[in-house]
YciE/YciF family protein (Parapedobacter pyrenivorans), 182 residues
Amino acid sequence: MKQQTKAQAGAKATSPNPAEPELYTFFRDTVRDLYWAENHLVKTLPKMIASASSEVLKKALAKHLSETEGHVNRLEKIFEELGEKAIAKKCDAMEGLAKEGESVIETTPKGTRARDTGIIFAAQKVEHYEIASYTGAHLLASTLGFNNVATLLQKTQTEEQRTDKLLSEMATSILMGKSKKA
Ligand SMILES: [Fe+2]
């Protein structure tokens, strides 16, 4: 028989240390922040894909878009595990990073290496923010004893790291290539 999740059991997750409820609240807010950030990225990535010229880059960003949709679903699973409603808390950092990506697109001509590498670097800044956030969230989940949640957070963190590495390789290959066009 499938084990009941905390949500199904109606139990509300709290910090295992009743003297420190703020640690749980901080963790929950971190997950809410990530939920906003990932949802925002789902809306932002299609413009980056449409603005890129390199087919390899377009494909990599499209793959990351479907992965990001998976990250949203994974966060919903985490809320369920915690017995919390899936609530997004505005992430100012992701909003700023997305704006920066848009400005790179506005200030570089289409079909140039400048545009494509600009998109890659903007995407990597997003990845680095996410890696830092997932690393912190994972540590908090482990500390609070939410082992299933920690495993889910770790999976996403690993995927973000893989994407970051792939983007680095792509930037090198675009910039070290002979063509000045994308
Ligand atoms: Fe993500």
Remarks:
- The domain at 21-176 is CATH 1.20.1260.10 (Ferritin).
- The first helix runs from residue 6 to 9.
- DSSP finds six helices and no strands in the chain.
